[in-house]
Amino acid sequence: MVFKLTSEVIRSLIHGALVGLGSYFKPGSLHRLKPLKIYDEISCNIISSLPILEEAISLGEKVRKGELSFASIELGKIIAKLLRESYRFCNTCHPSYTVPILVFSMAIGHSNIVSITSDSSRFKRSLELILSINKPGEVKSIVDAFKTVGRSDLYEHLYSTGVDQLTLVKSGVSFSEVFKILGSKHTAFTLLESRDTPLFNYLKKLEEYYKKTRDLNNTLVAFYLDLSEPFMTAEARKLVDEARSLGLMMSKEGARKLYEADLQLGKQGISLNHLADIVAAMGAVAVFEGFT
Predict the structure, then answer these.
(1) Is the separation of the CB atoms in 126 and 110 below 8 Å?
(2) Taking CA 75 as the corner, what is the angle to CA 93 and CA 135, rounded to the nearest 5 degrees?
(3) Prior bond of 288 cis (ω within 30°)
(4) pLDDT tens per residue, the chain (292 residues)?
(5) Is this model's pTM higher than 0.70 or not?
């Protein structure tokens, strides 16, 4: 088996996340042909995560080799460092676009896989071990970082569900539990729900779409539409159905229908930006798998 170099893994994850964010047309959501400030902010966050992702892979490798244990890894502080670096470099922070990729990086380093689909059991086991960490104070490090990078909304969301400061310090709240709560607000965090993660089902769906067209942009658009159609107006859904029959982005006519659906949702004031983070995360996984 030929293992991927750390630099190759990092490049594929970052490139894939940017492709997922920019994939077009995603009616109602972010894409690279929709000039919004938040698009530039998120792109900056993804790019600035590179050195922290390298650190995460290295730590995963050291655990695999027996040089460290997961109990000794301060995952909360690593994630907090990621958030603060995003804020320092970009003057803003969008955690749901970077934290899942960091956790995936560590799991890849630990499992030493070249493909998630080919070695799904090994990757899943590594993911579960990472997300089950419940060292007192580690989750608190992330929550404290939320407040220092201007994301008190995430802290308040956790607090509203009963996860307060005392709980974070004294009880064994795992990362998986926290990400499950955050996933109700930012969908990409649902990929980090340990045993309940939809990651593998989503990856199978991406494979199905990719085999039909061998086009990553079209694959990610099709995946996005599966998630977003329930939130669309009847008029937009009709345009999407027409686009599907025309091959989506594989034809000018299909692309035009998606563009019209995007305009229609915009005129109605409907934003589906909350789904862009999970498309970015799955884009990262797709490029790691070799989708182009």
Answers:
(1) yes
(2) 125
(3) no
(4) 445 778 899 999 999 999 999 999 999 999 999 989 999 999 999 999 999 999 999 999 999 999 998 888 889 999 999 999 999 999 999 999 999 999 999 999 999 999 999 999 999 999 999 998 877 778 888 888 999 999 999 988 988 887 766 556 555 678 888 899 999 999 999 999 877 899 999 999 999 999 999 999 999 999 999 999 999 999 999 999 999 999 999 999 999 999 999 999 999 999 999 999 999 999 999 999 999 8
(5) yes
H or E stretch covering 70: none
Token pair of 237 as six digits:
């859904």
Write the DSSP assignment of 91-111 as a string of letters: SS--GGGTHHHHHHHHHHHHH
Gap between the Cα atoms of 25 and 289, Å rounded: 23
- Six token digits for residue 228: 């977003």
The tokens for 245 are 């029959």
